[in-house]
Design brief:
The complex is a heterodimer. Chain A has a single domain (3-359), classed as TIM Barrel, CATH 3.20.20.140. Helix content of chain A is 40%, strand content 10%. Chain A is built from 15 helices and eight strands. Chain A has an eight-stranded parallel beta sheet, with helices on both faces. In chain B, a hairpin with a 6-residue loop joins strand 6 and strand 7 (101-103). The radius of gyration of chain B is 19 Å and the shape is elongated. Classes of the chains: A alpha/beta, B alpha+beta. Chain A binds chain B through residues 182, 185, 240-242, 244-245, 270, 272-277, 280-281, 283, 285, and chain B through 73, 76-85, 94-95, 98-101, 110-111. Chain B: It comes from Solirubrobacter deserti. Chain B: This is Rieske (2Fe-2S) protein.
Chain lengths: 362, 199
Amino acid sequence: MTTALLENTSRDAVWDGAVIDVDVHANVPSLQALYPYMDQLWIDWCEERGWKGPSGAAAHYPPKSNRACRPEWRPAEEAAASRVELLREHVLDPWKPDYAVLNCYYGIDSLRHPDWASALARAVNDWVRSEWLDRDPRLVASLVVPARDPVAMVEEIRRVGSHPQFVQVLLPARNDQLWGQRVFHPVFAAMVEHDLVAGLHYGGTTEGAPSTTGYGSWFVEEYAAEWQAFAPQVTSIISEGVLQLHPELRVSVLEGGFLWVPSWGWRMNKEWKGLRREVPWLDRAPLDLIREHFRFSVAPTDAGPPELLAKAVEWLRSDDILMFATDYPHMHDDDITALLAAVPESMRPKLMAETARDWYRL
Amino acid sequence: MSVPSTNPSEPGGASRRVDKHVVARVADVPDGGRVIVEVGGRSIGIFNVGGEFFGLLNRCPHKGAQMCKGNIVGRLSSSAPGEYDYDPSSKLIMCPWHGWEFDIRSGQSYFDPRGTRLRAYNVQVEGGDVVAGEIESGSTALTPAQYAAANPSALLHENGLAPGPYQAETIPITVEDEYLVVNLRPARPARRPRAEAVS
């Protein structure tokens, strides 16, 4: 069964309490859709060159793949998840969430032109604000940033970060540098200043390969093994002392899975005890920092057999760490009822809504 | 002066238990140095930190490594990335196996000062005349190695073992020297006086 679709079941049969969906997507349907949000300079820049948009998004989500859009959610004549009406029809109406967190991964990071990347980030954020946030009060969103330029990232956070419906900054899991490094510390400072969550999200187009050993041959290798891009980012944010610098910082791991976290954390805790002199600011066990400063969306859930799933969730040793997501319009075949059955009863309302409500101050 | 021919802590000596043991000459453990001695059936490291002496059980509470053979390092902490709060006068010993750091003064582990600690022993500096008197009265003992070295024939007679390997640890007690005396009684944390605690 795949419950994200609510096929052959009702929302209340799955969960009759409050719901907050922390990962739904807005797809830019075409570059022209952003023209109303661009200066004439950049419109002409695109037209003169016949430029169709950044390549990053299609590389991560091949447009006709079911992984990019579940067939039932694919509109006949237009791009998937490209209008708020589609999101209402597919998620907001059937799931009746109190809120949904909108993430637009448009692959701005695949641009190397620094001024064009900043202009495009501004255009995407203004498009999200006008065409989504202004049109449905249940929506809050991540703002996007030109990830190759920390100074420009800060500028964009300052430009739109005070809007009450921007609650997060989308940081692609793959990046040219690890997010915890010093060069990005002012970016985290700007997030904290604007009370925004750092949203580590699937995607990112880097000069480097998706694995540490080059490019895989097939989409499945990149797609299924994307956690190997998330893990070093989490390790970097922990090791570089970002959380000591900003004790208020919240980091969401979105579309990155979560069952790798316990084994990663056990190793980190163990090594921290003996290697902590190298990173003396790391004054607490890494898994303790995870439980305080990180939350994970549950789509995809790398579930495995149900009886083992309960055990694996227990290894997280926290009722507060998981947040429900449909990951609309992506198709994961996750069974949220199986996950709910595997977690303690006290954790279910937290997983479905309350953790996200606290986390995003909704 | 000569070393007494009986050792109260050893078989053949007096039966009452002795907590204090002479383990080294002060001059043998320079500042920053250490010696590891066998005393009372356990291995103990004696450390000189800035002229003060501290004793630690030579056994890591984690996996049992010979803790006192590890590197001696200064205390390093930090309040933020790039900030280094380094106190080279405060020393920690790092376990040679997994690098866990323990405060040489207290035996407390750095990462878990409450839950993980190394047993600490009190080490006193005593003059040779005092030590000689204490050994004479039986309140202080030589380590087994010292005893064996000082009384080769006695030990040979007792159990047929030759004391050869222990010769290096022989300490002839002389009144002019100062000695390190370790107390095997567990060092207790300092408590506030009862009256003060009640008020």
